[in-house]
């Protein structure tokens, strides 16, 4: 549809915050609509070694401005990894999920205990919420999983809003945000990260808590940007709740490596990255196999 419109206009401009979310090919597809002649030169340039040539080729059609380039008045943002140690119960549940290759359950580590009051992540979350309340702040808590959101909502009770998820209508979402805006310090906005992580302005909050690492950095970045955006008046604190010796650690380390390679080129070209920045199903399967091997080795030495 866009391509058809492009063929009948004299001027064409694409604006996007995520020109590249997963793969270089996604950006090449956009460029093929803007300048097919340039796009035809890019095939075969998706490797890291071709990054300089890629940047040079797309220069006539691509211009990147980062948040800090245009919003110089934004306050400071501090990101922190909050590492939790599994209890014996959590470790048993986690290892059972790993050995059964229940991928989603492994990612819900610590949140899938029967009583959330015993969860190591939930305990740290409550501490962070109390600290934020003492500093007269409001909080957003994001999770990918609906069941985690449901459990956190039950744990927090009147301290939190009605959760925002994919089933909540746009009108109701706005009502929830309006209520959150008027709510006292210490109030928590709960949101499924793919529903509340885009298209919303939530500057009333200055603390963001992520319940688990996401498989795409862009999902986390967009969620954080709900609070860290124009008209934010306070420094923003971002906390990632993570568990040692679990897939949390493996996902975090893997994405850090991918992001490091990506950032080597990002100032000049968001597209010049070797691989997609997400942990795809094949890669995640490999991480689970590494965990299976680790758990079996531990059992053999007991």
Automatic annotation (TrEMBL):
**One of the record's GO molecular function terms:** ATP binding
Q: Which domain of life is it from?
A: Bacteria
SMART domains, A to Z: HELICc
Example GO biological process = DNA repair
InterPro entries, per this entry?
A: Helicase_C-like, P-loop_NTPase, SNF2-like_sf, SNF2/RAD54-like_C, SNF2_N, SNF2_RAD54_helicase_TF
The protein in question is named DEAD/DEAH box helicase
Q: Which keywords, in A-to-Z order, does the entry hold?
A: ATP-binding, Helicase, Hydrolase, Nucleotide-binding
* CDD domains the record matches: SF2_C_SNF
Q: Which residues form the Helicase C-terminal domain?
A: 124-278
């Amino acid at each position: 549809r866009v391509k058809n419109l492009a063929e009948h206009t004299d001027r064409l401009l694409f604006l996007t915050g995520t020109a590249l979310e997963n793969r270089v090919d996604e950006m090449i597809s956009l460029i093929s609509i803007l300048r097919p002649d340039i796009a035809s030169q890019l095939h075969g340039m998706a490797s890291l070694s071709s990054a300089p040539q890629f940047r040079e080729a797309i220069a006539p059609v691509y211009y990147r401005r980062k948040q800090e380039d245009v919003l110089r008045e934004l306050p400071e943002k501090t990101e922190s990894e909050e590492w939790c140690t599994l209890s014996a119960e959590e470790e048993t549940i986690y290892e059972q999920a790993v050995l059964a290759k229940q991928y989603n359950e492994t990612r819900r580590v610590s949140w899938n205990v029967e009583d959330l009051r015993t969860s190591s992540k939930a305990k740290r979350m409550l501490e962070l919420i109390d600290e934020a309340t003492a500093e007269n702040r409001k909080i957003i808590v994001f999770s990918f999983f609906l069941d985690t959101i449901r459990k956190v909502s039950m744990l927090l009770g009147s301290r939190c809003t009605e959760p925002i998820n994919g089933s909540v209508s746009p009108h109701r979402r706005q009502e929830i945000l309006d209520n959150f805006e008027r709510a006292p310090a210490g109030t928590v906005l709960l949101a499924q990260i793919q529903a509340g992580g885009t298209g919303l302005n939530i500057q009333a909050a200055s603390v963001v808590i992520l319940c688990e690492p996401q498989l795409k950095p862009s999902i986390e970045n967009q969620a954080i940007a709900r609070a860290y955006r124009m008209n934010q008046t306070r420094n923003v604190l971002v906390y990632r709740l993570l568990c040692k010796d679990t897939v949390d650690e493996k996902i975090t380390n893997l994405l850090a490596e991918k992001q490091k390679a990506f950032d080597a080129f990002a100032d000049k070209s968001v597209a010049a990255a070797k691989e997609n920045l997400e942990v795809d199903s094949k890669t995640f399967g490999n991480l689970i196999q590494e965990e299976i091997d680790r758990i079996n080795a531990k059992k053999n030495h007991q």
